[in-house]
Design brief:
There is one protein chain. 42% of the residues lie in helices and 19% in strands. The chain contains nine helices and ten strands. A five-stranded mixed beta sheet has the order 3-2-1-4-5, with helices on both faces. Strands 8-7-6-9-10 form a five-stranded mixed beta sheet, sandwiched between helices. It binds 5'-O-[(R)-(carboxyoxy)(hydroxy)phosphoryl]adenosine and zinc ion. The site of 5'-O-[(R)-(carboxyoxy)(hydroxy)phosphoryl]adenosine (KG4) has 19 residues, from helix 4 and helix 5.
Length: 342
């Protein structure tokens, strides 16, 4: 049976809509919000307003590109959380309106689960390699850093997570200190390619939890290095930008890989995936692929367009939930924090 799902994502600063038929992606439209760049971070109120402006044209374009009429959709999948409440409200309310107007059921999706299930999206011209269950997923985004054991599309267990900052936050905050634009992750990634990763040494954490992470110590150590060196030479950051970026990126990757390797050993799992915005990082992608070659893992590195926030991942998650009859009522409301992965 063919199932067609419209996915809507509005949890942070990207308004996105996608159409999927079974597991094959028919369209994936993303409107990014440039309005936040000059503030050096996402301003929630401005994000909600931009979503409100973008959502109708984005959904309309996604349906047109897919060649699907609104009344031919089987279900509307939307991000219920976690994310910015005002942003989530726009997507959720829009989904409700479309649901009532066309008598189509709604399916709520956890954004984090969406990132992970992006590994099951197929493209019209090619089948993608998918991990076998159970697999381990290193989920690294702007708000979360977790190791998740994935037993099926609907059974996930967080086995490790950050006790303070997320990896993406470490990238973004350190970039801000260096005067780099928001979001800092992609800028650091680019500058790091020209730098020496051994130039500077930053603190690596000792975290009690076997598979847990911490990034706040690294951030402080980065900040202190900059403060001390800038006191000696005001041009220090400008002169050493590439080396600072390369060293910082290498430290973040080492912290992530250390725990990921530990988890694969402890659980005896050799299918290993990465997901979330930070999985766009070229250094991390190479490091995971290399660890996989050395340790006999099958590694799953997402296409760049599925790493940062997108509605294709919400649509594929909605597909699996709809198949199981997991429909949401019209009284569903968004949740800023969702501790559970399901
Ligand atoms: O998944 P995502 O788009 O949104 C959240 O759910 O948080 O992740 C955004 C995060 C930001 O912190 C951004 O700096 C980071 O992903 N990011 C990167 C790269 N591209 C995006 N971090 C490092 N290297 C990149 N190439
Ligand atoms: Zn995300």
């Amino acid at each position: 049976m063919e199932i067609t799902i419209l996915g809507i994502e509005s949890s942070c600063d990207d308004t996105s809509a996608a159409v999927i038929r079974n597991t094959t992606l028919l369209s994936n439209v993303i409107a990014s919000q440039a309005v936040h760049v000059k503030y050096g971070g996402v301003i929630p109120e401005l994000a909600s307003r931009a979503h409100q402006q973008n959502i109708i044209p984005v959904v309309d374009t996604a349906l047109k590109e897919a060649g699907v009429k609104a009344d031919k959709i089987d279900a509307i999948a939307f991000t219920r959380g976690p994310g910015l409440l005002g942003s989530l409200l726009v997507g959720t309310s829009f989904a409700k309106g479309l649901s009532i107007a066309n008598n189509i059921p709604m399916v709520e999706v956890n954004h984090l689960q969406g990132h992970i299930l992006s590994h099951f999206i197929d493209l019209p011209d090619r089948k993608m390699p998918h991990p076998d269950f159970p697999f381990l997923c290193l989920l690294v985004s702007g708000g979360h850093t977790q190791i998740v054991k994935v037993s099926s599309p609907l059974e996930m267990e967080i086995i490790g997570s950050t006790i303070d900052d997320a990896a993406g936050e470490a990238f973004d905050k350190c970039a801000k200190v260096m005067g780099l634009p928001y979001p800092g992750g992609p800028v650091i990634d680019r500058l790091a390619k020209e730098g020496d990763a051994k130039a500077f040494a930053f603190a690596k954490p000792h975290v009690k939890g076997e598979f847990d992470f911490s990034f706040s110590g690294l951030k402080t150590s980065f900040l202190y290095t900059l403060r001390d060196r800038v006191a000696e030479d005001p041009d220090f950051v400008e002169k050493n930008k590439a080396d600072l970026c390369a060293s910082l990126q290498k430290t973040i990757i080492d912290i992530l890989l250390d725990k990921l390797i530990k988890a694969t050993k402890a659980l005896g799992i050799k299918d290993v995936a990465i997901a979330g915005g930070v999985s766009a990082n070229s250094g991390l992608r190479e490091a995971v692929a290399e660890a996989g070659r050395r340790r006999g893992w099958r590694t799953f590195i997402p296409e760049l367009k599925f790493t940062t926030d997108n509605a294709a991942m919400i649509a594929i998650s909605g597909y699996y939930r709809y198949q199981q009859g997991m429909i949401s009522g019209l009284d569903v409301s968004p949740v800023a924090r969702l501790e559970e992965i399901l």
